[in-house]
Each structure stands twice: as C-alpha cells, then as structure tokens.
Amino acid sequence: MNQQYGPGFEPDNNAFYANQGPDGVFSTNARYETLAEYTAKTFGWMFAGLMVTFLVALAGYTSGIGILLLRNSLLFWGLAIAEIAVVMVMSARIHKIGVGSARGMFFLYAALNGLVFSCYFYLYQMFDLVLAFGATALYFGIMAAYGYLTKQDLSGWAKPLMFGLIAMMIVSVIGMFFGGVNILLCCVGIVIFACYTAYDTQKIKAAYFAYAGNPELAKKASVFSALELYLDFINLFLYILRIFSRSRD
Length: 249
Fold this sequence. Notes:
The protein has about 250 residues and is mainly α. The protein contains 9 helices and 2 strands. The termini are far apart.
C-alpha cells in the first residue's frame, strides 16, 4: 500500500497551508499536518491498540476467560483464526472501507489479541512479563527512532526481511523436533521484527508524502501503519518473553 521514497529524498517537515478549490485556486484556509504530527498520530493509534490489548487481557485474566481458553483448544484456535481474518480483511479492503471502519477493525484485532494474551498471565510469571515489556519498549523505541531519523533508504530491507520470515517458519518446524532450536528462533525473531520496526516507521514518511493530497487515504494509511507497528511490538514482546522465561527455568 505504501510507497517508499527513493534515496536522497529530503522530506520537508515544515507545516504548510494550502487548499485547492474546485476552481483550481489555492487558498490558505486549511492547515496540513507536518510529518512529525502525522507520525505522532500514527504512533498514538499504535499505543492505543496496545492499551486496548492490555485492558482486555487484564479483564480476561480477572474474569477467568484466560483459563477457559487454555482448557478449550478449539475456542483458542477459533480466536486465533478470527484475528488472522480481521487482518486479512482490513488489508484487502483498506482502500474501500472508511476511516472509522479501519480504526474499528484495528481495535477489534487488538481486543481479540487481548483475549489471547489473557492466557499469558497464567503461563508466565508477572516479573517476566513486566521485564519483557520494558525490554521490548526500549528495543522498539531505539529501532523506531532509527527508522524515523536515518537518511538511509530502508526499502531494500523488504525482501531480506520476507526471506527472514520464511526462514523462521522453517526453523519453527525444526524446533518441533529439536527443542534447543527454540532459542535460535527467538533470537532470529527479535532481529527480524526489530528491523521491521525501523522499516515500517520509515514507511510512515512514504505514506505522508504519497497521500498528502488525499486526507482520507492518509488517515487510513496511518491506521494501517499503526497496525504494522503494533504487530512489530507484539512479536518483539513474545520472542523476548520466551527468552526471559527460559533463562529462569
């Protein structure tokens, strides 16, 4: 959906005022967002999604839904399939649905993920959960800052990262037979999703300039970028959590 700008492209972070009317005349009655404002709003949606996930997970834990999911594998996998379906529908129809619908689907996914995460309160120690979250926030923040500030064009990372995900799937299959491979899988996963964090952060810039003349598409692109960053954070958290929990075994 988003197009990467080429190397050497220097974005203008200054606010500008311009609105072209139906007669082709530009007026100054509309203020466009700066790149910094657009990026901040995108991260705002991402953090809102994380908050929804946390609150739903906490509610699921205190209400016993997490235990129900752990005891009923059919219900658990049904929930996981529903999550995948929401992301697929949102990805396929992002240009057709409205901004409100895009945001609704994003928060629906975050809520469904929260129900899955309610199980983790029973599977992991609270200390490990808190420590993993702190490490994830630090790691994510560093890579997001790099993606936003670097002058390097990261669009070339797309194919290597995709191949990395394929390699992870292969390692996951191997890990089913050789337990020691799981640590390697976690390390590879952390590297891949850390790189995805920088890559997806830079894509926000591309969306800002690509849809500067279409506020509707710009807002939907912001929501979709928030979903990508949300997934980066969640996957980083899960792999870091596995390493921390194993180190205490």
